[in-house]
UniProtKB/TrEMBL annotation:
GO terms for biological process: rRNA base methylation. It comes from Cellulomonas cellasea DSM 20118. This is Ribosomal RNA small subunit methyltransferase H. It catalyses: cytidine(1402) in 16S rRNA + S-adenosyl-L-methionine = N(4)-methylcytidine(1402) in 16S rRNA + S-adenosyl-L-homocysteine + H(+). One of its GO terms (molecular function) is rRNA (cytosine-N4-)-methyltransferase activity. The gene is rsmH.
Length: 340
């Protein structure tokens, strides 16, 4: 590793504090304690969770997926000391089954998902994820492909913009914001985050800007989710990840807003609930739960973690263990991926 590589590895470690790392390792450890055990870190980011697993669990190796080439490169340098115990792959995490097939893996012992925007993406001003600094309206997690936030704001009609803001940002002033966007873009396309913040300032009543934190947060979240197809990807990825788990394998998911957490809760509940019709005197084996929930509801960060790591403020962690193969009648069919 060159001096520049070493500095970039240090940068990755100092710029990102993994959320609930000890708890994630604790939940995954029983499934990763045998030689040859494999964890898929489905959202590698800058590699903090993977590094924690590789240090704590000497039998484990990790396949790390990320759609962001910059994050993948930084994590790769950070994890270089672990040699062939780490494999990085440029992929979106709903591609997990295909990635594992290419690597010759029929199943894995663990899956970890740390959802949402990464510290790297927030910190890089030019990526346009932050409403606190003026930058191009981009917001793509993979900046090499796909639509940008500017494309959404300048090409979607008023009704579609309002829907994005209302559904993905839970923004009660979605209609007013959409009308102001359409009015502004009639003069010139919106291209900068600062311009969008000005739109929000004009569209959201003063009283609505006084509570609930920065009102731009909801709109920026909504646009980011739309640009990256985050909920569509998650809805496909959750059942796919469960199907990749060997019996005894474990899945741990960290979500950061209610829309994500709702999908996680629903997907794990399907596997942890009997599918037998009510009233049967004996539950057929094929209808017995194939997952066991490892958390009571969603776990949150304690005060110490929140003070140490502000990103943990909104985390909701859920986990489950695979008890048996998924019955044929419950195996999900994978929806087609949204084209870029």
């Amino acid at each position: 590793m060159t001096a520049d590589d070493e500095q970039q590895a240090v940068d990755a470690a100092t710029r990102h504090t993994p959320v609930l790392l000890e708890r994630c390792v604790e939940l995954l450890a029983p499934a990763l304690d045998a030689p040859g055990a494999v964890l898929v870190d489905a959202t590698l980011g800058m590699g903090g969770h993977t590094e924690g697993v590789l240090r704590a669990l000497p039998h484990a190796r990790v396949v790390g997926l990320d759609r962001d080439p910059q994050a993948l490169a930084l994590a790769g340098r950070r994890l270089e000391p672990f040699g062939d115990r780490f494999t990085g792959v440029h992929a979106v995490y709903d591609e997990m089954p295909d990635v594992l097939r290419r690597l010759g893996l029929t199943s894995v012992q663990g899956v970890l998902m740390d959802l949402g925007v990464s510290s790297l993406q927030l910190d890089e001003t030019s990526r346009g994820f932050s409403y606190s600094q003026d930058a191009p309206l981009d917001m793509r997690m993979d900046p090499t492909t796909g639509i940008t936030a500017a494309d959404v704001l300048n090409t979607y009609d008023e009704k579609a913009i309002a829907r994005v803001l209302r559904v993905y940002g839970e923004e009660r002033f979605a209609g007013r914001i959409a009308r102001e966007v359409v009015r502004r873009r009639a003069d010139a396309p919106l291209t900068r985050t600062g311009e969008l913040v000005d739109v929000l300032r004009a569209a959201i009543p003063a009283a609505g800007r006084k509570t609930g934190g920065n009102p731009a947060k909801r709109t920026f979240q909504a646009l980011r989710i739309e640009v990256n197809g985050e909920l569509e990807v998650l809805e496909r990825a959750l059942p796919a990840a469960v199907e990749c788990l060997a019996v005894g394998g474990r899945i741990v998911v960290e979500a950061y807003h209610s829309l994500e957490d709702r999908l996680v809760k629903r997907a794990l509940a399907v596997g942890a609930t009997s599918s037998a019709p009510p009233g049967l005197p004996v539950e057929p084996e094929t209808h017995q739960p194939y997952l066991r929930l490892l958390t009571r509801g969603a776990e949150e960060a304690d005060d110490t973690e929140r003070e140490r790591n502000p990103r943990s403020q909104s985390v909701r962690l859920r986990a489950a263990e695979r008890l048996r193969p998924t019955p044929h009648h419950l195996r999900a069919t994978t929806a087609p991926r949204r084209s870029a």
